[in-house]
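At this stage, I wrote out one protein's amino acid sequence and its backbone structure tokens, and that material follows here:
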Amino acid sequence: MNRAYVDLSPVRHEALPDLWKVCSSEAELEQRLREISTQDKFNEALVINMSLGKLIYLSRSASLNLNLSINNLLDNRNIQTGGYQQGRFDYKNFSTTKYPNKYYYAQGIRIFVNAGVRF
């Protein structure tokens, strides 16, 4: 999970003809353009999962299959799993902080128990 980026919004990657009006120099204009058009990268993350299974034969023709699966064993909820640039933009001040990116985060620990019978 180390090469994931937010989804782009076309609004932040189109021509901004009035941007030069709020910039005092060409260097500031270039810096603002870089800030507006930058695609944020998600934080790197590591998830540990665990899975256990047991097959129990009840007779020659029937069996019971038990499975236990635990996801996000360390209960890390700071993992960014998705995100997007908002579809609205501050055309007055050309600020990226007024409508910041939105992120999705991982759920905490999840436990699944499955049982199956075969005939």
Notes: The chain has a mean pLDDT of 93. Residues 26-37 form the longest helix (12 residues).
